[in-house]
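Q: For a teaching session next week I want to show students how multiple molecules come together into a single three-dimensional assembly. I've collected the sequence lines for a complex. Could you give me the predicted structure tokens for the whole thing so I can convert them for display?
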Amino acid sequence: MMGTDNRTGDAAACPVITGIGVVAPTGVGVDAHWQAVLAGKSGIVRIDRFDPSPYPVRFAGQVPGFVAKDHVPGRLIPQTDAWTQHSLAATAEALADAGVDPADLPEYEMGVVTAASSSGAEFGQREMQRLWGTGPDWVSAYQSIAWFYAATTGQVAIRHGMRGPCGVFCCEQAGGLDTVGHARRLTRTGTRVVVSGGTDAPLCPYALVAQISAGNMSTVDDSARAFLPFGLDASGYLPGEGGAVLIVESRGSAAARGRDPGYGVVVGYAAGMDPAPGSSRPPVLRRTIERAMADAGVTPPDVDVVFADAAGVPEHDLVEAQAISAVFGPKAVPVTAPKTLTGRLYAGGSALDVATALLAMRDGVIPHTVGPDDLAAGCDIDLVTGQLRERRLRRVLVLARGHGGFNSALVLEKP
Amino acid sequence: MNGFTLDDLREIMRASVGVDAEVDLDGEIADVEFAELGYDSLAVMELAGQVRRRLGVSISDDDALRITTPGKAVDYVNGKLAEAAY
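A: Of course. Below is the structure for the complete assembly, covering every listed component.
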């Protein structure tokens, strides 16, 4: 079903995304990731970064074959966590993809806005073990910069000489969309290029245990049946590492370089916060979707696919499915969640969804959701399962929800 | 007798703090400022920490910031080792 085209927003005032970089369980590099998504090839494996046998969660999406020294200068390796190294690698790919050489642009007109969640958990765990195991003299001086949430934004900005507006969003899984929303804001006030998106590397005992304690992870001992968002057998989520970096660029800048409209235009964005537990007010996701679509100037028939947050936690899935149905009507818009191939990447999750959504628009394909088959009661959505669907996609809606009440929605358009 | 040599320092720099691709650590680096070799103040602090752990030579943070070249670092460590020997 093709929708009508009622968009009323001003796309000329919105930035475009001109470059993508991916480091994810589905592969290192945009092409490897996209081929894996199209093939429905999962990156979820039994955790081998440490012995997971003492923990109730034993599967995760692991980035295959990432060698830091192939992507990161030698001097930066001892001072960075894997999370930052993934972002540095994805940034280099995204800048090359966009054809942006930072040396050619004014340094104060380039910014960096990343999402962070687990931050440098593995680095931090190692140094804390040294602190308590051998003493303060054994703690790396780089602990002071490597593990805190702004490390990735800082290292990327320094490495590429980007001295414009910089920031970090700590909104768990919603953060990736928030970076793009904020990048759009920055491009409206004189910033030409914003490195946005995010990665996460939560595959160490410290990060895993921190997530287990929230009670939403799947302990099903089968990599193919553990993370089944919207499914009858949904049992929680699995974690994963990696994410994506997106080059958000003002249309003027992109046009001057012959790169407009790139992969697509960021036409709508909204964020909301859920009411406190026990409140009688409804979850904010529906209103967040409506606000993002109003911001884009679109109506439901203008949106061709929804990339869902897909928590995999039954009550969260139900809230999301109901919000989508309330806005679009039951089963009225295709919904997909390729993140079943990677696990939830926290700060990297919705950034990777944006990357995947842009590639889907480029190629006219809705990638399918591998895993769930029969949907849970009340999840009255057209979840794309079994096989991908070829379809011209003019607009995609990407949803993300972060632990603690964060909700974000982003509308992307292919002119 | 020199207990601690420039080569010992080079080894620590390579192993723990990393080396920029364009820097030749095997060259004449004794009198080259750490900053020119790509080592900022945090890198020098990390280097001081490594020396402390490996040799048991304590370098205060203030002293670490006054040690601006590899040559000065080697002299400083040897001075401390000589003090300890008395």
